[in-house]
Amino acid sequence: MGNSNSKSHTCPIPSSAQPLSIHGTAHKPLSLIAAACAILTLVSALALATLHLTRYRAPKEQRQIIRILFAPFIFAVVAWGGIADYDIAAYIDPIGDVYESFCLCALFLLYIQFAAPRTTFGEEMFKAMEHAATVTDAKGGAWARLSWIYVFQFPLTELLSVIVLEATMATGSYCESSLSPRFGHVWVMIISTLGVVLAMMSIFRFYKRTKPVMKARRGLAKLVCFKGIVFLRFIQTWVFGILIDKNVLHHSKQFSYADLLYGIPNVLIAVEMLFFSASFWYAYAAGEYSAHAKPNEGSLNFFRAAVDAANPSDLVFGILRIFNVFTEMRYASLPKENDHNIPLTETYGGGFVDGAADEYHSNGGHGRRGLGGRRGRRQRY
């Protein structure tokens, strides 16, 4: 009985499995192809990022763009590392997933800047909400807050999946070749899938509700280019997981079991990232930030621009703000009586923005439509 239970919790190695140290004749070409793609992807990303840094006239937008530009390189170098040493492939793969989660947050913040270019992050979500409510429905405020939660949960979800991955690998209950719920692999995939689906659906819905604004800023191209990366990595993860689980792939002299498990999927990612990096030159072009395109806006010098682009504080704030948004939504569901007796001491995010206090009093104590008078203020959606 005990022996049967022990076997049920043993990783079911496919009959075609081999030790990861065994390489097929295709291993070296796979590694060289991935390395070349990673280098070319880095060159492309650095060149385009340099153009943005020398034309750094819209920091709130270009900071997000530069973060996204390096996503293909991160994925490509992780893919190459997974081919170069199959023993570390499962450990370094989450690096790309975590960076992807922050890039999706950056894309969301970029879209918010397009929808509300002259506001701070404390207010622009409400601006975008107000715009969405005028073109769709009267519940734009609730939708905007839910979108914020669904997008910024993704880094937390990815962190959770990494914890599950590392914990199950440490306890011997992670089995890459099985999708059985007894092992950690399938749970890591499910957690990551839920996180990315919620984030992508929210970003796509944001694009649809602000489509007139996005058209002028190549919003669809930006979405398609980055969503393509997310979609391909997502599909390939599941496809190769199923093929390995069902023992469809078989090793040969050219391709060992490790080559099939890590080599081919990773070289596909490396090649795809090179093409996506090239497509970024159109979707995230630096031309719209040139002196000719923005003659009235000055540019930061290269060093200050690089420091600003590397500052992650807005992403950290976005994640922490999830809890604020939960609180606001809870207050919003409460009765509105005596709402006018609440003193207006601060706006959402702290401090008055764009004359919010004057407008609040000039409107008889009701504040701006769609903007709360203070953090935690009970608002009408």
Automatic annotation (TrEMBL):
<feature type="transmembrane region" description="Helical">
    <location>
        <begin position="30"/>
        <end position="53"/>
    </location>
</feature>
<feature type="region of interest" description="Disordered">
    <location>
        <begin position="360"/>
        <end position="381"/>
    </location>
</feature>
<feature type="transmembrane region" description="Helical">
    <location>
        <begin position="185"/>
        <end position="207"/>
    </location>
</feature>
<feature type="transmembrane region" description="Helical">
    <location>
        <begin position="65"/>
        <end position="83"/>
    </location>
</feature>
<feature type="transmembrane region" description="Helical">
    <location>
        <begin position="264"/>
        <end position="284"/>
    </location>
</feature>
<protein>
    <recommendedName>
        <fullName>DUF300-domain-containing protein</fullName>
    </recommendedName>
</protein>
<feature type="compositionally biased region" description="Basic residues">
    <location>
        <begin position="366"/>
        <end position="381"/>
    </location>
</feature>
<feature type="transmembrane region" description="Helical">
    <location>
        <begin position="219"/>
        <end position="244"/>
    </location>
</feature>
<keyword id="KW-1133">Transmembrane helix</keyword>
<feature type="transmembrane region" description="Helical">
    <location>
        <begin position="148"/>
        <end position="165"/>
    </location>
</feature>
<dbReference type="InterPro" id="IPR005178">
    <property type="entry name" value="Ostalpha/TMEM184C"/>
</dbReference>
<keyword id="KW-0812">Transmembrane</keyword>
<dbReference type="GO" id="GO:0016020">
    <property type="term" value="C:membrane"/>
</dbReference>
<dbReference type="Pfam" id="PF03619">
    <property type="entry name" value="Solute_trans_a"/>
</dbReference>
<keyword id="KW-0472">Membrane</keyword>
<feature type="transmembrane region" description="Helical">
    <location>
        <begin position="98"/>
        <end position="116"/>
    </location>
</feature>
